[in-house]
Design brief:
There is one protein chain. By secondary structure, this protein is mainly alpha-helical. It has two domains: 5-38 and 188-250, no CATH class; 41-181, Helix Hairpins, CATH 1.10.287. The protein is 74% helix and 5% strand. The chain contains six helices and four strands. A hairpin with a 6-residue loop joins β3 and β4. α2 (14-38) runs antiparallel to α4 (103-184). It starts with a helix and ends in a 6-residue tail after the last strand. The chain binds zinc ion (ZN).
Length: 256
């Protein structure tokens, strides 16, 4: 057996040894609590909904900018049509007034009215086409806003769920921390130091129960030789698992 003089030095009241197991339970629960806080599914959901809402906000900003441009284009088209209409109206008025007698001038005027009519028709086509594009853009924007507003409600609910889960974990952590503070007071400083070092080296488990001949830390079955030695060891001797070196605590279920 490979045991250092430091380990020889530790003789611990069996009651305190059991308290160390209780402390280990609380520490493991604190570790689980911290892990759950770090990997909270509610936080993942909330973050992904936030990202979706932000992406939609960007899409909405883009759709609004596109609609703004289209409306400006629409105003320009409306102005173009209006200018041609005014020109037609003016020419028509001139024609109807009978004030022009020169045939050449009349011909020119009629010619101009003809081309103005074609120009007006073309511009009105453009106007209608833009109007349709504005309508499509308005519907697209409205759909995005509806989707964003729905997601914003989901996002707020997810935030609440995350906060509630974090608050519950926080309350549990306070309780466990208080419990731990009380227990730590009962454990001798040298034992606590050894336990903390083992916990740091051994994935958070420094003390393990000997349960039916098995170390609960590494789950290895103890050899018959070790079991026999433990049977003969004084109850206040602090045992170590030969396999994982964790503090091994005897309980009523140790199978000794
Ligand atoms: Zn072990």
């Amino acid at each position: 057996m490979d045991r250092t003089s430091e380990e020889h030095a530790l003789n611990i009241d069996p009651f305190i040894q059991i308290r160390l197991l209780d402390l280990q339970k609380v520490d493991s629960e604190l570790d689980r609590n911290a892990h759950r806080a770090r990997t909270l599914p509610e936080a993942v959901t909330a973050a992904s909904l936030h990202a979706e809402v932000m992406a939609l906000d960007d899409e909405i900003a883009g759709a609004e900018a596109a609609l703004f441009d289209l409306r400006r284009e629409q105003n320009r088209a409306d102005t173009d049509v209006e200018l041609v209409r005014q020109r037609v109206s003016k020419d028509q008025h001139l024609l109807d007034s009978g004030s022009i007698n020169d045939p050449k001038q009349l011909e020119n005027l009629q010619h101009e009215l003809g081309s103005l009519a074609r120009r007006q028709a073309d511009l009105e086509d453009v106007e209608i086409e833009i109007m349709e594009r504005v309508e499509i853009a308005e519907h697209a924007l409205a759909a995005l806003v509806t989707r964003r507003d729905g997601l914003a409600i989901d996002s707020a609910a997810a935030d609440e769920a995350r906060d509630a889960a974090l608050a519950a974990l926080g309350a549990e952590r306070v309780e466990l921390t208080n419990e731990r503070a009380m227990m730590v007071g009962e454990v001798p400083a040298d034992l606590l130091k050894l336990y903390e070092k083992l916990r740091a080296d051994q994935g958070g488990v420094g003390a393990a129960a000997l349960h039916r001949g098995r170390c609960e830390g590494c789950h290895m079955e103890l050899t018959a030789v070790d079991i026999n030695r433990i049977r003969e060891a004084p109850s206040n001797e602090l045992l170590r698992c030969e396999e994982c070196r964790r503090i091994l605590i005897r309980t009523a279920e140790s199978g000794l």
